[in-house]
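#lab-general

N.A. 3:47 PM
ok so I finally got the sequence cleaned up, no stray characters, all 132 residues accounted for. can someone with queue access submit it? mine expired

B.Y. 3:52 PM
send it over

N.A. 3:53 PM
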Amino acid sequence: MQVNDQTMKPETAAKKLGIYLPATPESFREGSVSRADLTSLQQSPPEWLVDLRKNGPHPRAVVAEKLGISTSGLVRGGLVDALTTEEIGALLDNPPYWLHKERDVFAAVRAEKKRLKQRDAERRAAAPPPVE
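B.Y. 4:20 PM
back already:
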């Protein structure tokens, strides 16, 4: 019995690889990617993938992570296009006001999520055991 390998759209594979789809080779964008292909790309990336990860352009999620802000913060800051590693470095070397502001917002959101998680854990620990 033959088992068909599951495939995914190039968009999904690019997201899993953390790369910007329009910057990938045409052969990657126009086909489907099997799980085996994805594993192969992750374990032994071809030169184009290594270069793309190193120099970009990077997708919004990667740009936001490198800048220490949310993807919504990127949009509020006016960054809607993919950025290269060099462009990200320039922003980090000379951060504009909006980047400082978005970092503060992102830090506050993370702190609030942590506080709520701790509060919920304390409530669960203090709750009486369920009655059987």
